[in-house]
Amino acid sequence: MLVLAKSVLAMMIGFIIAIIFGYILIPLLKKFKIGQNVSEYLSEQHKSKQGVPTMGGLIFIIPTLLTILVLLLLKKMEFTENLFIVLFVFLGYALVGFLDDYLIIKRHNNKGLTQLQKLFLQLVIALIFFYIFINSGHEPVLLIYTLGIEIDMGWFYGLFILFVLLASSNAVNITDGLDGLAAGLSFIALTTFGIITLYTTWLDGNVSLAIFLFILAGSVLGFLYYNSNPAKIFMGDTGSLALGAVLGATAIVTRHELLLILIGIVFVIETLTCVIQRIYYKFTRKRLFIMTPIHHAFEKKGWKEQEIVRLFWLIAMIASLIAVSFGIFL
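User: That's the sequence. What structure does it adopt?
Assistant: Structure tokens below.
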């Protein structure tokens, strides 16, 4: 019960600080004209979002890091290697996203880091993560608890980890296209992983890692207050890359890499539609979907933005409930 109370309190602290920080940050971003540049290919309803402040990921990144720092200094949570490597990935990918957002704003267009530059920086962080992870005593094995399967992947596990981190971080980035969509999905995923991590009792420092996830989830919920339709701010790559990386890193550390697919099922679908669209167009010069990511296809079909977001949130919640059953009880 004490751990549960700490978890609820952690989420509440994250939420309150993010609300306060957002109230201060949004006017500052408006003052310095740090606004969104809307793509010309999007529907008319997106044109009104031109100039809406971006870099909103700072609303949940800074409060989360400050809260963790205070709790560590007060010795209210334990600092472990597992917490360190997840925090390292969180901050590292946030900095990559921040640099991309900064260049976009500076150039007054949608051209920040090139795909190759962004991929290279993400890859460097992922490699450092892998080095620390393996040298912390973790073995290169893939575990499927429900089926009692343990696969020794050897050196291939390094490539697997790189794929998980890159895929998860970019999946959230791709999904961040409608008001509240990525933030709501991330809140659901972070809360789910927080619950599962609490019950991953064999993991060193599992409670501290879970508390971090709950603080971040609460902070994301605070951000969602400003990001829900109509959005007063967007998270930008600063937030989306950081959130996706945390989900991927947590899945790896807790040995629930395959469960990440279920917890992040909407992120997976959004990303797959983009990949399939590109491959299909390359070979046929035709489009399989009206537009990708898939949420834009729903818009083209006449769906309202809020309807799409609610549907995707519902899918994520159902998938997360199933994931909790697999991650804890099965």
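The chain is about 70% helix and 0% strand.
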